[in-house]
Amino acid sequence: MALKDNSDNTFFGHPRGLSTLFFTEMWERFSYYGMRALLVLFMVASVEEGGMGLDDKTGNAIYGLYAMMVYLLALPGGWVADRLLGLRKAVFYGGCLITLGHFCLALPYTQTFFLGLFFIVVGTGLLKPNISSMVGALYPPDQQDKRDSGFSVFYMGINLGAFSAPFITSYLGENINWHYGFAAAGLGMVLGLVQYKLSERNLGEIGLQPSRNEDPSKQKSFEKNIKISLWILAIGIGLLILLLMLEIIKINPVTIAQVSTLIIAGSVILYFAYIFIFEKLDAQERKKLAVIGILFIFSSMFWAGYEQQGSSLNLFAERYTDRMIFGWEMPAGWLQSAPPIFVVIFSPIFAWLWLRLNKKKLNPSTPVKFSLGLFFMGLGYLVMIGAALVVVDGQKALPAWLVTTYLLHTFGEICLYPVGLSAVTKLSPTRLGGQMMGVWFMSLAFGNLIAGLFAGEFDENAIAANPQLLPDLFWIVVKVMMVSGLIILLLNKWIRKLMGEVR
Fold first, then answer.
1. Which conformational region is residue 437 in: left (phi greater than 0), alpha (psi within -120 to 50 degrees), or beta?
2. What percent of the chain lies above the pLDDT cut of 70?
């Protein structure tokens, strides 16, 4: 049920419930991006510097696995919300787990570090897809264009949190104590939870109830079986974590990350096969879900480039960028604030542009916006080749190189991400809304995993021995992004036909 949109119940011209979701997501992203600015730097920092002393390949592989799981668990998180908890409770419980995870990271122990990562990925899997689904539910089907604008406003909230977090967490983490930075990130999620509960009434009936079987006895049996399964899964994971903490078993993060790429790809294929075979879809639903599958592929390519910001580009800032300002060295993580502030500045401009073009019937289709996103990503890495050549010449690059790259990446992000979110809510059958949003976040999981593995190639020792490796690696990303953008542009007309009335 969508909230009634009237002059007494609006948030920047949108339903008042958008404000509740806006600020909840803002603080959740504060916690997530605050930690992201620290995570790789903390893992590869020496033990003497208070870090974990991991090599680049291992540290980046762990980062990729963590970032992958954050989004991978969005699919079961959406399913649990759809069938068991309801969207509203899933968001709250997810926030509680994220908070617990950050405070585990605040403790100076290796065991609690990995336990904290586990709590964060489970909590984010519950929160991320379902809060986005509730944004879509604020608007009736005849307000598709306003829904796009609403997601752009929502996305500004994400980036307000992401912008402010690195200034606090990076300063505390890099200059005082890494664990103080993690603790500050956790406080952000606490504030988000308090705000969510205090303003929850703005959401009306949205997300209160899960989908239920009309037969009460079957519904009760279903819920019992699911709860038993979840308890078994939780006990199994808890046992695995305990064995790892006691060092009874050991794992190789790089190998696991490599195998996980195949597992995710196979899982997505099997999931779509299941949906097409067993969900009794009509012809139009099949075509629209096929579009989601296509967008999944190109979204994954985009995020494989974008999420280098937390790994290879963050290491570039720390190792190869001149951060001295009047004798004081700026924390490397502060540069992580550039992309979100660019989003805050340019999101309203792009939202206005899409609406303006729509009135003139010139608004680019979803596939065209995806291609623009990939082209901007490629251009950003073209700039990084210039920065890398400065390093090859034996100098440190100015921060302007990274800032320009982040600006171009931001243009790509605005073209692709909010439009993709909106497209999934419009293309998905109502009964599969949470699950399809989970599929969308799986594309981010896949992209993050590839980003982590690729970032491992930026090994400090290898680059010291052969500096030309740095521009060569960036050139690989340029080629992948440009070719991907060209392919989806060529497929535009066919994809639009599959989308039917959705634009």
1. alpha
2. 93
Residues in the chain, total: 503
| Biggest CA pair distance of the chain | 72
DSSP conformational letter for 85 = I
**What is each CA distance from 43 to 39, 47, 195, 413, in whole angstroms?**
6, 9, 32, 27
Three-state DSSP state, 51: coil
Partners of residue 11 on adjacent β-strands: 14
User: Which segments of 87-143 does DSSP mark as H helices, in order?
Assistant: 87-105, 110-137
Nearest Cα residue to 477 out of 387, 400, 384: 384
**Coil, helix or strand at residue 45:** coil
Give the DSSP letter of residue 330.
P
Global pTM reads 0.83
Mean pLDDT of 93-114: 91
Per-residue pLDDT for 500 more than 50? Answer: yes
> CB 194: neighbour CB atoms within 10 A?
13
Average pLDDT over residues 1-21: 67
Among 189, 191, 54, CA closest to 113: 54
pLDDT in tens, 158-213: 888 999 999 999 999 999 999 999 999 999 999 999 999 999 999 888 888 776 65
Is 66 in contact with 310 (CB distance < 8 Å)? Answer: no
Residue type, 142: D
Please tell me the distance from the alpha carbon of residue 261 to that of residue 65, in angstroms, as a whole number.
Answer: 10
Strand (E) positions, 284-390?
324-325, 328-329
Using H for helix, E for strand and C for coil, what is the string for 155-207?
Answer: HHHHHHHHHHHHHHHHHHHHHCCHHHHHHHHHHHHHHHHHHHHHCHHHHCCCC
Q: Which helix (H) or strand (E) holds 445?
A: helix 433-455
Output phi, psi for 328, to 5 deg.
Answer: -115, 135
Contacts of 459 (CB under 8 A, 6+ apart): 55, 56, 57
Residue 503's alpha-carbon distances to 75, 147, 291, 412, 418, in angstroms, are 25, 12, 12, 19, 14
Q: What does the pLDDT average to over 372-390?
A: 97
